Amino acid sequence: MRQSRSLLLYLTICICSCAVLQLASIASASAADLQEIKKAGVLRHLGVPYANFVTGSGDGLDVEVVKLFAQHLGVEYEYVETSWKNVIADVSGARVNPKGKDVEILGECPVKGDIVASGLTILPWREKVVNYSIPVFPTQVWVITQADSPIRPIRPNGDINKDIAAVRAQLRGRTILGMANTCLDPSLYGLGETGAQVRLFHGNLNELAPAIINRDAETTLLDVPDALIALKKWPGKIKVIGPVSPMQNMGYAFAKRSSKLRHSFNNFFRACLKNGPYLRLVKKYYTGVLSYYPEFFAQM
Amino acid sequence: MGLPLRYARGKGNVVALLASVLLIGFIGFLLASNYSSQKKIREAALKQLHLDINNRAAAVSYFFSERRNDLTELTGNRAISAFFENEALGMSMEYGLKASLIAISEEFGRLLNQREIEENQIYTRMVLIDHTGKLLVERAADPDDHLQEDWKSLLTPEKHGPAITATHNQRLMRITVSVPYFFKNEYAGQIAAWISPQAVNHFLGSSKKFSIGPVSLVCSKHAIITSPVSQYGAAALNQPEFSKIEPNKPCRFDMVHKDGTKVDEVAILASVKDTPLSLLALRPAAELFGGMVPWHLPLTLGILAIVLLGVTATVHRANTQNLVLQARLEESAEKQQEIEEKKHQLEKEIAFRKVVEVKLRKAHEKLEQRVQERTSELAKANEELLGEIAERKRAGVALEESERKYRNVVERANDGIVIIQDGSIKFINHRMAESIGYSVEDVIGKDFADYLHPKEVSRLKKVYRLRMTGKPVDPRYETILKHRDGTDIRVEINAGLIDYDGEAADLVIVRDITNRKRAEEERISLETQLRQAQKMEALGTLAGGIAHDFNNILTAIIGYAQLVHMNMPEGKAQKNLKQVLMAGNRARDLVKQIITFSRQTEQQRRPVNISPIIKETLKMLRASLPTTIEIRQDIENNLGAVIADPTQIHQVAMNLCSNAGYAMREDGGTLAVSLTETEITGKVVTQNGSALQPGRYLRLTVSDTGPGIEPPVVERIFEPYFTTKEKGEGTGLGLAVVHGIVKAHGGSIQVQSERGKGSTFVVYLPKADAELGKETEKGMGPLPTGNERILFVDDEKPVVDLGRQFLQHLGYEVVARTSSIEALEAFRTSPDAFDLVITDMTMPNMTGDRLAKEILRIRPDCPIILCTGFSEKISEASAKKIGIRVFLMKPLVLDQLAWTVRSALEGPGSEQEALKHTDSFTLLNTKASIFNKGRSGL
Q1: Over the range A129-157, which residues count as b (16 or more CB within 10 Å of their CB) and which as e?
Q2: List of residues 6+ apart from B351 with CB closer than 8 A
Q3: ipTM exceeding 0.90?
Q4: Residue B378 belongs to what H/E stretch?
Q5: Which residue from B90, B103, B105 is facing A153, i.e. has the nearest CB?
Q6: Residue whose C-alpha is closest to residue B897's, from B777, B810, B816
Q7: What is the pLDDT of residue B481?
Q8: pLDDT band at residue B304 under the 50/70/90 scheme
């Protein structure tokens, strides 16, 4: 038993090492670092229209932050729209298939952007392929259902694991919506194992809450920023059952080789925090979150 | 000079004394008025203070009502209801519910920031408390300011609306507004807001329109919340006078200032509606009423007036003496100046007179010069006048010459020229006068309407009146004038307005168009006749087509009826069948008659017995006349012949009888027709002017018992287009045609009519010398028979069958064919097998005439009978040319067929015998003869 575990660990390390090496070779071939961006004179922002991070109308919290960053670098800003399916590939140049916390490398693809900023949750599998900035926004994944659903919101226990267990216990036999390749992928939280009927949603993330109101499924996963907006938009129509994840963070993603760019961003972001522009933007786009997680922003 | 001066001085003193007394009285009046007005000013100031404090209290009340509205609006806020909804759904603070509270906090924050007066926030704090008294949301203007409070004290579940409360203690004074919140009709909590006293103070200070100056807000226990009363310190509130102040009752008392000085103050209190608050105005009396006591001013002014009076008297006295001296000096100076002015005036007058004398002399000289000039001008004008007189004489001569020329033109013009003024004739040329049968002198001065046709008078008077009043009227029109002998003159008028002897007149050019109109009418008549002829031609064509088919039908009807009749024993059935045969024969005759009548041909005059024609006409007419009209006929049969066209005779009879029937169409009556012979011995002139020569005549009389004809109508009855019938019922040509036909036959027509007794038309036709051949009684004697072989050809099978049976009945051997091709083939096969060929004319593939040609080509001596219903495809000449021996008119009748066949077989010379025995119809026998004695082309 012990021997088989060691073997498994060894194989995992080997796979990861190979993956990292392969990614490094791919990245070195195609990704752009700080010098190249300055030389090209343009910073390409990869985004997916989502909540108030990227509204799709030319603004949003992350759009404004990246614009400020481009201004800070002295280059032009360029928005490159992508999808949740391709967002990691478009910045890393590698087509991957998430396997739980690991990834399977499928091949190469062209790099379309330099920075992903679109309410991107920091997930272990993504960290295998890209590098994240320092955490910029708090999040958590909640289960949402219709207001008149027989599923009752849990009573917080003070222990996040117990809260998650209480939520999972109610999902047996229920349909639950999620979205592949995002933080709302049910497989990330093992929801299939709860006996819930998992359905993958193929529309826009912003359409998950309306899908629940329209009774396309009994429950759905939503992250906190989106859930707070949904509660404000449709008061009395939906309710929060509880969490399926511990507290998470969002960050901006860079190609593995764009370490200087990432470093430059982290410095820029800290300065933004210190001088106030970032909190002003958070207040502009997510006032509720600022009050909901005051400790997160206080720590920053 | 001295007396007047003294008198003036004495008088001036009295006046000065009186003025002084008046002045003193006036000053006293002013002082009294001033004292009174000072008192009124004080009362008005108090009244204004009272009014202003109440107005300001109303404004403050409005301010607090706005605050109540703020909280009432919050109770409808979606964020608050969302919180309670989410709470009811069981959501926890950790997972979602807290977001609702944050949203409420944001709403509170928004309201805190929005409500401000002069950049001072009205609210200092807003809270939401649940029904247990637990604080849910607290939002303060100062984020670090957290209030420790017994929140339960704010709950007012029993109330349903917002309320203002004010509390105070030594440290803190506060005003709050709160409203209970209900979720799903159950008390869920309370919303409360703290109103900043400073904001209220700013509101009080911002009301600049009130003149009373700063006021203080006090609560019900007279605790002063806002300045400026606080300048007296807290001790001021303890003064007994202060606590005695009642709302709306001003009171005055001394207040001790912070520095210890006493101030005379006036205070007034006003309640703020719907709040526990009041407004207090405290004003120093000196500021409100002014520092001066009312009697101070009158006293000061009195003393001042006395001093002024004394000084005025002294100055007046000195001034009076000075004025007297000055008046004397001015008087002497004025006299001196007057003398100087008179002297100066005299000098000016002398100089002026000299100038006038010079001007008068010059004017006199100028006048003499102008008289001379004027005299010479008059002489010149006289000379020009003499020249002008000579010129006018020449012009007069030229004018006379011109007038003579124009008169010549007018009098010799072909058209009449008339000038009418005021309705009477002012001028008429000889031409015009003569054309109406008068002299110029007869007509001048007469009313122009006297010479118009009576029916034109009113119309032309209207036209004349319109023209003379300047209304638009067509200058050209036609009218009828009345000749002196009563005849009508049709004229064309061209009229226009002219100036005649200085007044408006109507110039009328008259052109006689009688001949032209007559020519036009004749042309129209000819055109109508042409149209009628064309119609008749079309009718003929139509009738021909119908007749062909009818004859085929009648052939079958009559023929088979004859066959049955021959083989039927005598009895009732045979009699009935005879009626069928008679009807069939009548139908056959009618068809013939239609064909004949409709054919417009050249007149074929020949000796004709007209009796059958008249009878047949009546027979035809009977069907079209109502049964209320009885027809009586007295027609002699053997009256001899008339040289006539039978068709036209038929037309005469038909028109006369139709007219008679029309006259009796409504009331019925008797139509009597007689035909007799008469002899005229002397020359007779009929009523229409035609003369009848002596001789023998046939007299046709047609009379009716209708309403008769009016004499004027009788006069015109034979005119073309003259009709008394309604439009569409008659053309007006009927009697004209009758008249024309009768006249063309050398006869005459007369009409006699009496009102209410009917009309009678009598036609005379000259009797011919020629004798008519005697007609053999129809059906007399046995039918000729034979045993020859006959080829019978017709495309109609019933006709073929009938022909076969007829011929077999007569003893002949018959070979029948319904196809001309087959018949030709049969003949070609054995040409000598047939003694006679009887063929129809109209057949498909090969017509009868072509068949005849082919047969004659094979056997030129073969006798051929060509049968026809009605055909114009073959003429007599072409038939002869082909070699056809006989035409046989359909329908086939036994006796006719028997005689015709026999005749054809026996050859030329037998026609007369055959004619005697055939069924000849008198009217048509010459045109539709079976032996082509009449015109061919049937």
Answers
A1: bbbbbebbbbbbbbbbbbbebebebbebe
A2: none
A3: no
A4: helix B296-412
A5: B90
A6: B810
A7: 92
A8: confident
Residue B480, beta-bridge partner list: B490
Identify the pLDDT of residue B331.
81
Q: Do B95 and A240 touch (CB under 8 A)?
A: yes
Is residue A132 within 8 A of residue A252, CB to CB? The reply is yes
Please list, in sequence order, all residues whose beta carbon lies within 8 angstroms of the beta carbon of residue A253, skipping any fewer than 6 positions away: A88, A91, A115, A116, A117, A120, A126, A130, A131, A132, A133
Q: How far apart are CA B346 and CA B353, in angstroms?
A: 11
pTM of the predicted protein model: 0.45
Nearest to B98 among A154, A163, A292 (CB): A292
| Torsion on CA atoms B735, B737, B743, B747, rounded to nearest 10 | -60
User: Which tops the pLDDT comparison, B177 or B238?
Assistant: B177
Average of per-residue pLDDT values in chain A: 86
Task: Tell the residue number behind the tokens 């005759």, with chain if given.
Answer: B589
Residue A217 contacts B where some CB pair is shorter than 8 Å: no
DSSP letters, B675-727, are EEEEEE-S-EE-TTS-EE-SEEEEEEEEE--SS---HHHHHHTTSTT---SPT
Tell me which chain A residues have a C-beta less than 8 angstroms from the C-beta of B138.
none
Q: Lowest mean pLDDT: which of A208-212, B565-569, B836-840?
A: B565-569
Q: How far is B154 from chain A (nearest CA, A)?
A: 27
Q: What's the rounded Cα separation, in Å, for the pair B219 and B271?
A: 9
The distance of Cα B449 from the centroid of its chain, to the nearest Å, equals: 39
B84 CB neighbours in chain A (<8 A) are none
Positive or negative CA dihedral for B471, B472, B475, B480?
A: negative
Put simply, whether B85 touches A (Cβ < 8 Å) is yes
- Tell me which chain A residues have a C-beta less than 8 angstroms from the C-beta of B95: 142, 153-154, 156, 163, 240-243
- Distant-in-sequence contacts of A268-276, Cβ < 8 A, 24+ apart: A268/A68, A268/A69, A268/A72, A269/A65, A269/A69, A269/A133, A269/A134, A269/A136, A270/A134, A272/A65, A272/A68, A273/A300
List Cβ neighbours of B533 (8 Å cut-off, separation of 6 or more): B600
d(CA A209, CA A221): 9
Query: What pLDDT is recorded for position B938?
Result: 22
Whether the CB of B90 is below 8 Å from some CB of chain A: the reply is yes
Residue B640 φ/ψ, nearest 5 degrees: 90, 180
Mean pLDDT confidence for B728-749? 77
Q: How far from B882 is each of A152, B794, B848, B863, B903, CA to CA, in Å?
A: 124, 19, 11, 12, 19
> Does residue B795 contact residue B844 with C-beta atoms inside 8 Å?
yes
State how far the alpha carbon of A15 is from the alpha carbons of A6, A20, A24, B42, B833, in Å.
14, 9, 14, 104, 130
Between residues B257 and B833, the one the model is more confident about:
B833
Give the model's pLDDT for residue B293: 64
Kindly tell me if the per-residue pLDDT of B809 is higher than 60: yes
Q: Which of B82, B94, B106 sits opposite A156 (nearest CB)?
A: B94
Tell me the residue ranges of DSSP E strands in B90-185.
116-117, 120-121, 123-130, 135-140, 163-168, 173-183
Is B125:B145 a contact under the CB 8 Å cutoff?
yes
Rounded CA separation B200/B220 (Å)? 16
Q: What is the pLDDT of residues B493-527, one digit of tens each?
A: 999 888 888 888 999 999 989 888 888 888 887 78
CA distance A147 to B339: 127
pLDDT digits (tens, 9 = 90+) for B151-210: 888 888 888 889 888 877 655 677 899 999 998 888 999 999 998 877 887 777 765 555
What is the model's pLDDT at position B601? 43
Neighbours of B537 (CB within 10 A): 13
| Strands B186-195 and B277-284, bridge-based pairing | unpaired
Token pair for residue B396? 């007069």
Asked if the Cβ–Cβ distance from A287 to B99 is below 8 Å, we say no
Report residue A99 as tokens.
Answer: 């396997």
Return the axis-axis angle of helices B197-206 and B2-75, rounded to nearest 10°.
Answer: 150
